[in-house]
């Protein structure tokens, strides 16, 4: 709590003004703070307002585009006791940071029963903190392994079976092609390192993560060394192409779409994006589950998406959770996937015929989401993620010493002995 009090004072006035501007007549107005999309959340807000039968109305308020800025704005306002934060679209990694100091209203058991029993396992894990549901999954996201059929045919790789990082690196070497991976110093690096670790059954943060003094890490391990070997090799051998060090999800998609594209780990947005920009490539694109680190161990793909939380200081928590139940209905999730390209957390939503028509890889996405693992769940996620990004980039400098050095650095940061 103390981390945000000083910053929260600066936005207290804004919260009071927002509360004062609410209408005093008619049904209560719930404010839903949404992340940028293609208008899907505004559409759902209107649908749920109508479905409430006059019990409430939902107005949306747009958050900044990048997740870090969303986190900063919401955390500051929550710390200041802003009562206008009725419903919030939250990036999963920041949920523990908001739940630990009590910024999120407790989720009623009835809502948990209605909206978590039909949810993919990855999203269920990401919605919990200290063994309790603190948010409700709205939509989930994961990365697939996308491949150019012509390249794997030339290399003779059987894509009907799970493939490993070593195999796709060998194909890139043999064919002189590039891997679409994200080597930029950014959140995508944390996503990559975490997926490599979790795919070996080892978490970056282990044990009690509530206290900075007690937080322990699993980076300094054989699993950490293997993760570093994969990333470092791709960097030093140039397997990710000449622009790897500045390559994010969009740039890696461009690499994959280019003449030397072969494999790519990326989110499902690349499918409609390629249909629009490079329709001639569609027939040459295949997909499968995230690559394995070890051939005999199932991979743990990255978990993304959005969770819905209710502010602890909201004046209408009961109505807010009623609205959350409406927003996260399987029907709304399926519609959101088809119109905005964001995969459902609800398993039932994947049975919608429109989903299968628009996204033929939907069954693989659902399977991947059941196997997906969250990024490090800790109230100190910002420090952990930033530290990882600093130590694992540039990718060509990553060695077998990087995991141990990163672990020592993160422990010193959390104990106040070093600065990021």
Can you offer a commentary on this structure?
This protein has helices spanning 2-20, 40-51, 67-79, 95-99, 109-116, 121-126, 149-155, 165-175, 187-198, 222-236, 249-257, 270-277, 317-327, 330-340, 353-358, 362-371, 381-391, 402-414; strands at residues 29-34, 57-62, 87-90, 128-129, 132-133, 136-142, 144-148, 178-180, 205-206, 216-217, 261-266, 285-288, 303-310. The chain contains 18 helices and 13 strands. The radius of gyration is 22 Å and the shape is globular. The chain has 420 residues and is α/β, with parallel strands linked by helices. The strands form four sheets. It has a five-stranded mixed β-sheet. A four-stranded mixed β-sheet has the order 8-11-7-12. It starts with a helix and ends in a 6-residue tail after the last helix. Helix 1 (2-20) crosses helix 3, helix 9 (187-198) crosses helix 17 (381-391) and helix 17 runs antiparallel to helix 18 (402-414).
Q: How much is the average pLDDT?
A: 94
Task: Round the Cα radius of gyration to an integer and report it.
Answer: 22 Å
Low-confidence stretches: 1-23
Q: How much beta, percentage-wise?
A: 5-15%
Q: What structural class is derived from the secondary structure elements?
A: alpha/beta
Principal-axes shape call: globular
Task: Find the count of extended strands (DSSP E, 2+ residues).
Answer: 13
How far apart are the first and last residues' alpha carbons, in Å?
20 Å
Largest sheet: 5 strands, mixed
Helix content: 40-55%
Strand order, largest beta sheet: 2-1-3-13-6
- So how many helices? 18
């Amino acid at each position: 709590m103390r981390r945000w009090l000083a910053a929260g004072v600066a936005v207290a006035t804004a919260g009071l003004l927002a509360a004062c501007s609410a209408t005093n007549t008619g049904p209560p107005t719930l404010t839903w703070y949404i992340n940028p999309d293609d208008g899907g959340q505004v559409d759902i807000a209107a649908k749920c307002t109508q479905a409430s039968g006059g019990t409430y109305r939902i107005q949306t308020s747009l958050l900044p585009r990048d997740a870090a800025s969303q986190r900063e704005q919401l955390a500051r306002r929550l710390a200041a006791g802003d009562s206008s934060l009725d419903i919030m679209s939250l990036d999963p990694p920041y949920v523990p940071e908001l739940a630990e100091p009590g910024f999120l209203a407790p989720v009623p058991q009835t809502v948990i029963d209605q909206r978590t029993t039909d949810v993919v396992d990855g999203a269920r894990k990401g919605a919990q903190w200290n063994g309790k549901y603190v948010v409700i999954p709205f939509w989930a996201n994961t990365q697939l392994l996308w491949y150019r059929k012509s390249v794997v045919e030339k290399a003779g790789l059987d894509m009907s079976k799970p493939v490993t990082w070593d195999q796709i690196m060998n194909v890139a070497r043999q064919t002189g092609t590039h891997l679409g991976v994200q080597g930029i110093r950014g959140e995508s690096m944390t996503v990559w390192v975490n997926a490599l670790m979790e795919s070996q059954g080892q978490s970056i943060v282990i044990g009690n993560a509530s206290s900075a003094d007690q937080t322990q890490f699993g980076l300094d391990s054989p699993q950490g060394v293997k993760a570093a070997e994969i990333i470092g090799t791709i960097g030093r051998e140039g397997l990710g192409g000449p622009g790897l060090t500045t390559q994010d999800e969009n740039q890696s998609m461009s690499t994959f779409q280019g003449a030397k594209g072969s494999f790519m780990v990326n989110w499902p947005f690349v499918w409609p994006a390629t249909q629009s920009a490079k329709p001639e490539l569609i027939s040459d694109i295949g997909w499968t589950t995230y690559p394995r680190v070890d051939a005999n161990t199932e991979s743990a793909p990255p978990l993304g998406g959005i969770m819905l939380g209710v502010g602890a200081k909201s004046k209408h928590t009961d109505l807010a959770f009623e609205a959350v139940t409406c927003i996260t209905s399987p029907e709304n999730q399926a519609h959101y996937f088809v119109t905005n390209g964001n995969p459902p957390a609800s398993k039932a939503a994947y049975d919608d015929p429109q989903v299968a028509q628009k996204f033929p890889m939907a069954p693989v996405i659902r399977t991947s989401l059941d196997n997906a693992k969250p990024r490090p769940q800790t109230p100190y996620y910002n420090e952990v993620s930033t530290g990882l990004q600093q130590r694992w980039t540039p990718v060509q400098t990553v060695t077998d010493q990087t995991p141990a050095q990163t672990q020592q650095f993160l422990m010193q940061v959390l104990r106040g002995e070093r600065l990021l």
